[in-house]
């Protein structure tokens, strides 16, 4: 029997507000801040405290929902989601349940199989939990609680079960990460846990409409783990069904070392959480004017930019997405292109995405393409296109531009790097080289044709790489024919 996967995603996005969701505590870097240094009676869940909603978090939520073409609800309600965890101080989480911030959105995916629309079920606001650190030393096991993260604004984005493959899930996560970065809502640092992805996976016989039993993988924070975790869980469930066994509804984790999932707990249903309206928060009312202003302020969205790059610059989907995902690099590419009339797009793309980043890798500096002035790089490409310098010299000039910030023409002039294109001069250089390499010339005459590359290299080395390579090869071919 053939099976197909049915997958829905829940993504939790920590929002880049200065303060927490319901109190004035500062949002700190959880990887470096002293544990429990950003906690007050409200986010610590002390009795008698009252939450106050963070307006910036609402604005960020509206921006994401509008970008996903959701229906924005003018009135939404906060609820208490009751469950006990050591890092959930109140014993419940303030979230939105029956009346969320927004519903019924969509996001277009461009996969290897073509474009697919993924439906967004809901977008809602809630607060994050604290963080547990599990310790096992000297034969003792215990957990340490850090409440710095408790109460940080979260946006949960829930899809319909529209995914069928791990690739679709990964592309969606990449699109969503780019979106929240473009909107200034989230940094996109998955490794820091500021965006956590939780796929709900089930399988069913092909052609059957009834859904299978779903299993949720918790808190995946890399695209690699997401795609591999989904693929593993699909295969695990299919193997269970083929063996005549049942799939248990549960929550599982992903073990990167074993590349497999492991059971954490049985999966709860909504009624297990005993949702009821949060009595300490009034309904959230969003005016029509606010909704319209949010929609009008949206920038060009990542998938829109990808399509524009593909149409205007004839880039492949993956090439266009590379420029989209690295937003600063895409902006830089467009700046260089603007200053480079007549230069092929492919040439600009190669220098911007390969030659320039390699200098940052070598220097181990944080990547910032604008370290090299876009106009200066365009001028450099113009010098190469006009034959004033060759490709190899161009790379040398780019390295100097990277270090000094000087324009290309000035570097070429100061260091005497102009390309040698005088045919008489090149003819003389080739003649002298053949005289100095008589043994290699005899090898060529005896049929060892691969000697040509060595002879070519000798001319280029003699000129410090400044000779026009096309003219050198042409002249070398002429003189070798005569020597036969």
Overview of this protein structure:
With 484 residues, the chain is of the alpha+beta class. It has 3 domains: 3-294, no CATH class; 326-414, no CATH class; 423-483, Arc Repressor Mutant, subunit A (Orthogonal Bundle). It contains 15 helices and 16 strands. The protein has helices at residues 55-67, 166-182, 223-242, 288-296, 302-313, 317-325, 327-338, 345-363, 374-385, 391-404, 408-414, 423-436, 438-445, 451-462, 469-483, and strands at residues 3-14, 71-72, 75-76, 78-82, 92-96, 102-111, 114-127, 131-137, 140-146, 153-159, 195-205, 215-217, 250-255, 260-266, 276-277, 284-285. Helix 3 (223-242) links the parallel strand 12 (215-217) and strand 13.
Distinctive features:
484 residues; alpha+beta; Arc Repressor Mutant, subunit A; 3-stranded antiparallel beta sheet; 16 strands
Beta-strand residue percentage: 15-25%
Globally, the shape reads elongated
Largest sheet: spatial strand order: 2-6-7-10-1-11-12-13-14
- Compute the CA-based radius of gyration: 30 Å
What structural class do you assign from the helix and strand content? Answer: alpha+beta
The tally of strands reads 16
Number of domains: 3
N- to C-terminal distance: 71 Å
Main pleated-sheet profile? 9 strands, mixed
Which runs of at least 5 residues are low in confidence (pLDDT < 50)? Answer: none
- Mean residue pLDDT: 92
Report the total helices.
15
The helical percent reads 25-40%
